[in-house]
User: Fold GNAT family N-acetyltransferase from Microbacterium stercoris.
Amino acid sequence: MILTIRPVDERDEKRWSDLYAGYRAFYRLPDDPAAVATTWQWVRDGEHSLVGIVAVDEQDHPIAFANLRWFARPSTATIGLYLDDLFTSPAARGHGAATALLERAAAIAGERGASVVRWITADDNAAARSVYDAHATATPWVTYDMKPTA
Assistant:
């Protein structure tokens, strides 16, 4: 399979949305077309510092995506690139799409002078972790979520 990595654009909406719904299902999030549509708008328009990239096949059909987001790193006075989401269509797994997306994320970070590309994944996501371990170093940090007050 010959892959190309490129920014998302308008023509990707249907396929990207299907992939994003698959990503949400993988993480056992409820089916929520409104959340998918809102996230698509953010990624497409670059809202909230989001950058969307896709891996496309020979017919220019997206088979995988990565949603990236810039963030400030006050402790180092640098910027970082956060990989919010990465997902490959089950039928396209094993053909290098995730690796190609990670490599493009690293290049985007380098182009902007970022000091790190960072992401989290589920502890039990062994397939993804095997790819991630080949490209990055797992950190000792523990992630916490706190609910905002009303």
About this structure: Helices lie at 13-26, 33-45, 97-111, 126-133. The longest strand covers residues 62-73. Residues 97-111 form the longest helix (15 residues).
